Amino acid sequence: MVEPAGLYDLSRLLMYLLDEKIPRIILGAGTNVLFHDAGFRGVVIRTKYLNRMDFQSDGTEKATVTVSAGVPLPRLVSRACEFGWTGIEDLWGIPGSFGGAVVTNAGSGSVSMFDPLVMIRLLNDRGEPIAIEKKACDRDIVIWKFPQGLC
After folding, report:
1. What are the pLDDT digits (tens) for 94-130?
2. Residue with the larger pLDDT of the pair 66 and 31
3. Which of 68, 112, 128, 141 has the greatest number of CB atoms lying within 10 Å of its CB?
4. Among the CATH numbers 3.40.50.970, 1.10.760.10, 3.30.465.10, 2.60.40.420, which is that of 7-136?
5. CA nearest neighbour of 40 among 20, 19, 15, 23
C-alpha cells in the first residue's frame, strides 16, 4: 500500500505503475471495501494525504469549494457549515473520503454528490491532469479515474 504525500507523488507513481505494467487500485478511506481472500497482486494507493480544502466566497449566495480526494466527507460538510454554507449538510453522516463519495455519487436525504458538482479535476492513467465539466458527465453512468476536487 502506498499513500502519496501529494499530487506530484501520485502523478509519478501512476506513471511508474503504468510503465511497469503493475496493477493498481486507488482507494480512498477504505470504507465499504472488501478484498478477495486471495488478496491483490499489485499496488493499493490510498488518498489519505490528499486532503486539501479551499473555500472561496465572492460575496454572492454561491461559494466555491475545491476539495482533494482524501478529505473525509464529514470534515468537508462540517467546514462548510462553519462558514454558514448550506446544501450539503445531509451528507454529513456518510463515512469515507470525498473522492470515494464522488466516484459512487454518494447521497443522503435530498442531496447527492453530483448535485453541487461543477467540475472534476483528475489524473489520467499516465498521471497527467485533466478536467471534466459537470455537463460532460452522465449522471447515471459516470466512470472516474481519480477525482481531485469539487469546484
Report:
1. 988 999 888 888 888 888 888 888 888 888 888 999 8
2. 66
3. 68
4. 3.30.465.10
5. 23
